Task: inverse folding
């Protein structure tokens, strides 16, 4: 698609708290040092990493989960999709609520509920002394975890938008978004060894403690920026148009959905593919998935920094380039499936890094287009489609496998969506 789209001016007014030369003053009226914004970024990173360790970390234990709970491939897909399904359904709601009532209330509500849901799984839904809990009940509780934990996606990003000046928002949001693979790397490094050594009570106990730590940090230190609430009445007319009514923003968000299919092909069934088809040891697979997560986090931060230095330009171009390279990588996996295991694993790692590494500039672009007052809604839309892709991927893969083969999975769920993303992404806006 090549038609030119109309966008909001790329330079949005910064929040009052983010532009002050002296102390930064939050909505509570409390004065903070100029470095307080970095503390807010740290809280956002912690909250996002805690949730990411659950929704990206649990799939890295997919083989152990399947064995411990006696799951078929389709049952495993349902359990792995549960967290992302919950976030998919609630993310727009959390984003809108962030714009209306502020990030603090949203984060405290969502993270507290996430912690309680994970605590319930730890206490009642783990295999113990030969008793295997119902996978359907486990899926329901993980769905609830995702529905509540999805609050961190839009709210923590909006907090960063509010406290940072416009010329640093791309870098700051990229750092916050890098917490997703960072949390996934923590999950990939910690959860499989816990599952093998102590069982899933240790797995879910770790995730509960991580979520509790993030909850306490928000309660103790998070103050909202001056733009924390969307005005009502006559002042609302001066706000930018709702992101939900803008086709250019929808197109950006749709590309996020498409690119999530190859991403979660690697993160959900990548370990199953490498272990069952290429016979790669589980320990090696865990190391490879940590490498994917760490280097994708680096990619996210690098992309945000690089585009900030160019005035926020070239974000869409960078995502488009990533899309074409991702498509080439997954096509290579499909064509060379019978190659030595190290070749296939290398292709999967490189494709996974790129498939996980586009988020920083993507989130910065959609938040900038919407403006800081509407960033929560825009990020909620973005995350709804991101988690939609994460939800459907582990459900689609068993369906394709039942009628075809792994090369077809790599082509239909890896390469093809990446090509569609490159074609749907709008052109760069004309320079002012």
Result:
């Amino acid at each position: 698609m090549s038609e030119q789209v109309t966008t909001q001016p790329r330079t949005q007014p910064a929040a009052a708290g983010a532009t002050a030369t002296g102390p930064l003053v939050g909505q509570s009226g409390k004065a903070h040092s100029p470095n307080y914004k970095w503390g807010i970024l740290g809280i956002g990173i912690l909250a996002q990493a805690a949730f990411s360790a659950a929704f990206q970390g649990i799939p890295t234990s997919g083989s152990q989960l399947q064995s411990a709970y006696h799951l078929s491939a389709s049952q495993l897909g349902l359990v792995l999709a549960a967290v992302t399904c919950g976030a998919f359904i609630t993310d727009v709601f959390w984003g809108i609520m962030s714009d209306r009532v502020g990030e603090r209330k949203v984060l405290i509500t969502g993270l507290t509920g996430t912690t309680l849901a994970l605590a319930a799984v730890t206490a009642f839904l783990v295999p113990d002394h030969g008793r295997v809990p119902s996978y359907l009940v486990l899926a329901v509780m993980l769905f609830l975890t995702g529905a509540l934990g999805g609050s961190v996606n839009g709210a923590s990003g909006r907090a960063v938008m509010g406290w940072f000046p416009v010329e640093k928002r791309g870098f700051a949001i990229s750092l916050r978004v890098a917490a997703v693979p960072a949390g996934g790397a923590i999950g990939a490094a910690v959860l499989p060894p816990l599952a093998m050594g102590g069982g899933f009570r240790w797995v879910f106990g770790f995730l509960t403690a991580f979520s509790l730590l993030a909850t306490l940090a928000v309660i103790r230190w998070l103050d909202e920026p001056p733009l924390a609430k969307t005005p009502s009445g006559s002042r609302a007319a001066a706000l930018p148009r709702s992101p939900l009514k803008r086709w250019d923003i929808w197109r950006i968000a749709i590309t996020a959905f498409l690119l999530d299919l190859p991403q979660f092909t690697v993160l959900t069934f990548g370990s199953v593919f490498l272990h069952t088809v290429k016979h790669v040891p589980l320990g090696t697979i865990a190391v490879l998935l940590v490498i994917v997560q760490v280097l994708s986090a680096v990619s996210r931060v690098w992309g945000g920094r690089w585009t900030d230095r160019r005035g926020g330009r070239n974000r869409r171009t960078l995502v488009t380039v990533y899309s074409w390279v991702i498509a080439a990588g997954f096509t290579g996996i499909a064509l060379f499936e019978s190659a030595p295991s190290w070749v296939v694993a290398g292709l999967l790692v490189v494709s996974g890094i790129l498939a996980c590494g586009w988020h920083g500039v993507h989130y910065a672009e959609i938040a900038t287009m919407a403006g800081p007052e509407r960033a929560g809604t825009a990020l909620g839309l973005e995350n709804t489609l991101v988690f939609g892709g994460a939800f459907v991927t582990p459900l689609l893969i068993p369906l394709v496998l039942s009628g075809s083969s792994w090369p077809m999975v790599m082509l239909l769920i890896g390469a093809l969506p990446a090509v569609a993303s490159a074609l749907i992404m709008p052109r760069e806006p004309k320079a002012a």
Summary: The two ends are 23 Å apart (CA to CA).
